Amino acid sequence: MGRRHSGALPVPRKHPRSGNARVRIGGQEHWLGPHGSAEARLRYDELIAAWIASGRTSVEAATKPKPPPAQEVELPSSPDITVGELALAWIADIERQRRGKYRRASAWHAGLATAKALRHCASMRARDFGPRALQDVRRRLLDTPYTRRHRKPDGTETVEVVPRSRRYVNDTIGRVRQLFNWAVGLELIPIERAYALKQIPRLAAGQGRETPRREPVSLADYEATLPHLTDEVRGLVEFIRLTGCRPSEAMRLRLAEVQDRDHPVWRYQPANHKNAHRGHVRDIPIGPRAQEIVKRHAFGKADDECIFAPRRSLARIAHGGPTIRLRRKCSSRVGTTFTANALRVAIHRASKAAGVDPWTPYQLRYLRLREIRRDQGAEAARATAGHARESMTAHYAPPSFEAAARAAMAAG
Predict the structure, then answer these.
(1) Are 203 and 166 a contacting pair, CB within 8 Å?
(2) Euclidean distance between CA atoms 124 and 85, whole angstroms
């Protein structure tokens, strides 16, 4: 079979066993649909158009799933609505507000947890739900443990029964209150009911299982892990370490969203971030050391491509580690962006190879924000973190005893 000449467009071919059409673009197979159908031709045209528009380097714009059409959610209006119906309507309203992105929203997952906690009283009328019912929900949460499953290297699995933490119970009860406040806005329940639910105090320390406070990773463990990471993952980890940004913001870094590249400090403004739905603008400063990492990993990439690409990670050799046996071509199942789980697993495996305790990407954010608060103050730490409230910054970087000790020494 002759070779395709330079500049020719990829040709769709028929898969003999399935009867579907497929085309290979940039070394990756794309399935188009039944061979010869209008659906297959339309899909082929979309892929080729996206490939040509990107300078024949990427078809990412055409392969992204299209968001579903906007659907108006019919909000409940009956005063006899039950607790279960109210919870489902609340979740549907969250999906409408975060259309296409609700599965990554903490409010949506919290709504599911709230509906699960209210299952035993789902048939109760919402206007009859009061403080005693809320106390019953809290008691059930405390008395109902959950199971943790641990898979061992030999394939066996262990099951651990763990009681729910005090923080989880308090957060869930707070979401129940939020649900009924939402119902007050729709005039489904009297405002007195929502006010009565606020009179139930939060669980105090000692009234439930306490979870350990997350601490930053130690510099010794961080530096010992780096040689066992691939070059692409190492660059991603070092970028989080130097900027203190969220791992999701670093994984989606693109040159198109980096401003002021002619200034000493660059400004990274991600379009999608945790508080984007609130209208907040996120500014992440990129200093000289982080700029060198971006330049090295952005070489040969278009502005709309992710700087840290998992496909390129498979084609490189780990720094200081053993030689990796590479495939001739990357698997088509590998995406164009790192996922949170993939990054966490890579760090856990590297830390295990280094003989140190496993740590998570967010512990780098804790480490960097504490350093900034110690050296530049609380305002610099808050601006770097992108927090709207000072209390959240204090969660990552609480006031240090060393600062209080210096003030005591200055006072004499």
Answers:
(1) yes
(2) 10
All residues at 6 or more sequence positions from 351 whose CB lies less than 8 Å from its CB, including other chains? 221, 224, 225, 228, 357, 358, 359
Instruction: With beta carbons less than 8 A apart as the criterion, state whether 373 and 381 touch.
Output: yes
Q: How far apart are CA 349 and CA 238, in angstroms?
A: 17
Distances (CA, A) of 153 to 150, 156, 157, 158, 351: 10, 7, 9, 12, 16
- Burial (Cβ within 10 Å: 0-12, 13-18, ≥19) of residue 102: middle
Q: Which DSSP state fits 306?
A: B
How far does Cα 275 stand from its chain's mean position? Answer: 12
pTM: 0.71
Would you say how long the chain is, in residues? 412
Digit-by-digit pLDDT tens for the chain (412 residues) are: 455 556 678 888 888 877 788 888 876 778 888 888 888 888 888 888 887 777 777 666 555 555 555 455 566 777 788 999 999 999 988 888 877 677 777 888 889 999 999 999 999 999 999 999 999 999 999 999 888 887 776 778 888 888 999 999 999 999 999 999 999 998 888 999 999 999 999 999 888 899 888 899 999 999 999 999 988 899 999 999 999 999 999 999 999 899 988 999 999 998 887 777 777 888 999 999 999 999 999 888 888 888 888 876 654 443 334 334 444 455 555 567 888 888 999 999 999 999 999 999 999 999 999 999 988 888 998 988 888 888 888 888 888 777 788 788 888 6
CA gap 213, 228 in Å, rounded: 27
